[in-house]
Amino acid sequence: MKKNFINQFLGIVFISAAIVLAVLAFVAPVSCRLTEEGIEIVPADTTAPSVENFLVTGSRTVLLACSEKFVLDRICILELTDENSFEDSVFLGADEGNAFAVANVISYSEDGKSAAVELSEDMAVGKSYVFSGVVYDITGNSLEFCQKFMGYNKNPARLIFNEIRTTYNKSKSAVEFIEFYVLKSGNLFGLEYVSTANGEAKKYSFPAIDVKRGEYITLHGKILEGMEDDALDELDDDFTLSKANESCDTARDLWKSGDEKIVSNTDVLVLRDYLSKEIKDAVFLSQSGKKSWPKKAMTEYAEKACSLGFWPEGSLPENAVCTDSMTSSIFRSISRKNIEKIAERFPDENELPKCIASSASDWIITDKVTVNKVTTSGATPGYENSTNPFVAK
Fold it and tell me: In angstroms, rounded to a whole number, what is the distance separating the alpha carbons of residues 357 and 56?
């Protein structure tokens, strides 16, 4: 009798326990893993870890960060060519034979939420690649992912603004331009020029080309109708390639596609790094009488550039180069006066300061000069700046 009662009681307990476990499995899934102490029950996460950050940190290293502790597997790097695209690329983990590179070493952070990956091959500067792999969390959830990225620039060039023309003349095929001076040899990839008056959508990203200290680089503002065959980017050492008006055969010419403005008479011009958005140089331009910048982005960049020391005299338009005399004349330009002094002050290109200060007094509005009926323009894209100042009559 007593034995039957015990058997019945144990049966009820077993059934109840089974029901409880079933309910728990439904509302709070669990899994297990083998440890040195035995089997450990861990909550089963039903979602895969998410990739929160991806950074290219070297010519063959990248850094990956996830929302939780993870393990990487099946890493492959595909080089994008004219024959394929990111949209057409497939997950390559199962076919390493088609990969440009694979992972040599994976080093995880102490908390396991990030990993530095050393690749088997050096990437080319500015070349397009796709990183693909599988991310696993501790409960076995996985995520297959692909990330497009560009080859790392280990030797970035250093540029500063040197000459600016805010006007253009369609009938004479003369367009706006921004001229830069190369203070440090290197590659241009990773640099962006932004006219904050005209917006981020109209920024210019420099191509991956090697330049040398002392070069002048002219970014021409638009390609007008009829100029398409002559307005060519000079990406190599042939400076005679571009034949459009105001191209220079002894300096590098680059062209911004389209017909949108790249600079305005009231503007905050910024040269910056495309990833970090770190400012590399800045120039303030303004017509007289303005108490504040007309756009929020202009105010923000002016204040930032001022605080970093690029334009230390003040962030308001009253501290900018006055552009009232920059009318429709294509013979005038806003020219830096002290480029030679800057080059002399920093003879070692590998010891340049992060910030080179400038102010309105370092710039003049140049104008044409006529001698014996021969007119020489005050705008000199690709050449040393004119020293002939504009004089109001």
Answer: 30
Give, in order, the Cα–Cα distances in Å from 346 to each of 91, 217, 319, 335: 49, 19, 26, 20
Spatial separation of the C-alpha atoms in residues 389 and 367, rounded to whole Å: 6
Q: Write the CB contacts of 239 (distance below 8 Å, at least 6 apart in sequence).
A: 248, 249, 250, 251, 252, 253
Q: Read off the amino acid at residue 21.
A: L
- What does the alpha-carbon distance between residue 95 and residue 309 come to, in Å, rounded to a whole number? 51
Contact 97, 41 (CB under 8 A): no
C-alpha 216/C-alpha 234 separation (Å) is 12
Cα–Cα distance measured from residue 301 to residue 283, given in angstroms and rounded to the nearest whole number: 10
Q: Please tell me whether residue 111 adopts helix, strand or coil conformation.
A: coil
Which pTM value belongs to this model? 0.82
Burial class (CB in 10 A: 0-12, 13-18, 19+), 43: exposed
The sign of the dihedral angle between the CA atoms of 332, 333, 334, 336 is negative
Check: CB of residue 378 under 8 Å from CB of residue 386.
Answer: yes
Query: How far, in Å, CA of 267 to CA of 202, rounded?
Result: 13
Whole-Å CA distances, 70 to 35, 115, 348: 18, 9, 45
Only one residue has tokens 């597997």, namely 73
**How many other C-beta atoms can be found within 10 angstroms of the C-beta atom of residue 360?**
18
The β-bridge partners of 32 are 41
Give the C-alpha separation, 249 to 242, whole Å. 8
For 305-362, write each residue's pLDDT tens digit: 999 999 999 999 999 999 999 988 999 999 999 999 999 999 999 999 999 999 999 9
DSSP string, 32-78: EEEETTEEEEEE---SPPPEEEEEE-SSSEEEEEESS--EEEEEEEE
Q: Tens of pLDDT along 90-100?
A: 544 445 667 88
Give the closest residue to 338 by CA, choosing from 387, 373, 270, 267: 387
- Separation CA 313–CA 294 (nearest Å): 20
| Two tokens, residue 333 | 């330009």
Q: Are 72 and 133 in contact (CB under 8 A)?
A: yes
Helix (H, G, I), strand (E, B) or coil at 297: helix
CA distance readout (Å), 57 to 49, 62, 107, 157: 22, 5, 14, 17
Distance between CA atoms of 338 and 360, rounded to whole angstroms?
12
What span, in angstroms and rounded, lies between the C-alpha atoms of 357 and 355?
6
